[in-house]
Amino acid sequence: MIFIPGAAFALALMQTNPAPLAQINSTRSDSLLLLILGVGSLLLSLLVQGLKRWVHTDRESDVQDHGTARSDYPAVELMSMRIDEHAEKPRMAIARPLLSVDVEDYFQTEAFSAVAPREEWDNYPLRVVDNTKRLLDIFDTHNAKATFFVMGWIADRVPQLVREIAVRGHELACHSYWHRTIYSITPEVFRQDTRDAVRAIEDAAGVRVSGYRAPTWSITRKSLWAINVLAEEGFEYDSSVYPVHHDLYGIPGASAAPYVWKTGHNDMIEIPPATFSIGNMTLPAAGGGYLRIFPLGYSRMAIDQLSRRTHLPVVYLHPWEIDPGQPRLNGPWKSRLRQYWGLESFELKLTRLLASYQFIPFRQWRTDVAAAGPEVSFTMPGVMVA
Fold this sequence. Notes:
12 helices; TIM Barrel; alpha/beta; single chain
């Protein structure tokens, strides 16, 4: 299946010098092969794009299952992801971009989950403490405040780091305990994992956690039941639904602007990561690999476009992305490319981005989103939301 990030990857290959592939121990012939594959992927993507529309709100088959766990928990029926932009709601002011950090270490990414199994994590040297403190210093230099989505596993092992994040004026939120994709576990396992993570973060810093972000953006159509679990657990907002096509995540057709989930429990705000729109296409932008691989101008265009539309541009990154000296794990070429491409230049890109905007944490916009964001309703087991 060809999808937009495939074309994005191809463009990145053509716009970036193949030399950095040496960082992932690839040979010159490997680099040439990747370039050829990238160009071929782009051409195929353009061909398919000319034959049909990319964004389909009703194509369940475009969202990969990837081993969805069996469960007696009924699936969520999504009532509507279509937003009425003309609804009579107060309009938010021009949006200042939100800054977020997913606090995980280099061996905990989904790209290397098969290479670095969770039962072996304690064998890897932690680099997240120094990298996160480096980010805190960079943010201080630019007077930027962020929301740090922290893994419970990290909070249990280095609680002093979690306390320092809070003491330095940043918001703490939850990024799961074990960094497992939501669609690969049951609702019961997800609930316990979330509770364990919240307990670890709150014990470490003594502050209440009210925000959540799923590992690998893994709240998809197949795991929308997680929205109800989060609402039941008292979360006020989520930032897990990526409105794009991707092989690991995404709900194509979902709103790129913030909205409010109407559940049978607490209403919960959804604040999606930044995207860039071209016609009816919605492309990922301004975070993680999209910030590392693409020219900085692409992220700026996305932020400016979302701001003009009074949406909330959400930039995200990871502490390991400012660490080009991190140990190289021997995973598949796609995993190595996703994690290691652009590490050398990422800190410079980040500082330039921070110098261009005044970034704030999620907590400063929650009230405005709750008042101005459109509403999305769905049914849950035993609950019908009109």
